[in-house]
Amino acid sequence: MLRCWKTVLSALSYSTTASATTRMFQEKGIRTITLCDAKTRNSLSLSTMNEIINHLTTNDGDPGLRCILLRAEGPVFSSGHNLKEFDSSKKGTEEQREVFAACTRLMLQVVASPVPVVAVVDGLAAAAGCQLVAQCDISLCTPNSTFSTPGASFGLFCSTPGIAVARTVNRKMALRMLLTGLPITAEEAYLAGLVSKVVMAESLDSELKTITDAIESKSRSVISLGKKFFYQQIERDLQTAYQLGEETMVNNLSLRDGQEGIKSFIEKRKPTWEHS
């Protein structure tokens, strides 16, 4: 297993100290968080989840940060929670509750992040690992990837993973996954809406560059405003959503970059973003 390290990067990159379970690397505006705990199949232990939260939030107000990628080493993106943390003979109720609370904080932080968070899957994403994929703004996977919520097979129903999955795929697919624990293929995940696109492994980096280049070409402040509004309106009734949308559009126009975009369109030139 490759161990995580601290590295000194160029002036255009960001460096950090990482542990044996996660690694964070930032080059220019793209931050990559990598799960690298092959020994536990990249399980989302309490400590690992807290590390990911820290990687997500470190300097997240920096206008130079434009996108965050979540990747993993090995054939498993994440097998979900580390079940050893749920052994009642060793862990009490409060300790178990702490794990689920950390998982909730992680999922909500993905949503709260001011920049797009992209999951990159090349293998199995199970239980809370599948939950994390479902919660990300954009998710890519390779054809050999599979997704499952098999908790009931181990006596622990995937209740919290089901929250993200049920808000991403249709109800019948969500219940099939949750009640049977059977895995779905990459193609099934795409058709159900769990992932944004299925990409051949050798084309994954190219597709990621296409996505990150597109994001970086836009105003960070506009993308941040749009992402925040999307999650605000998606669970609201139609009338309330439109009312919120009206106000958001007006607020968008009050941004310097909102006006710069309008002027550049009228003047038939490329916009010069201030990210404000």
TrEMBL record:
Principal subcellular localisation of the protein: mitochondrion
Classification via CDD domains: crotonase-like
Function: May play a role in fatty acid biosynthesis and insulin sensitivity.
Keywords carried by this UniProt record: Fatty acid metabolism, Lipid metabolism, Mitochondrion, Signal, Transit peptide
Name listed for the protein in its UniProt record: Enoyl-CoA hydratase domain-containing protein 3, mitochondrial
Compartment(s): Mitochondrion
GO process annotations (BP): fatty acid metabolic process
GO molecular function terms listed in the Swiss-Prot or TrEMBL record: hydro-lyase activity
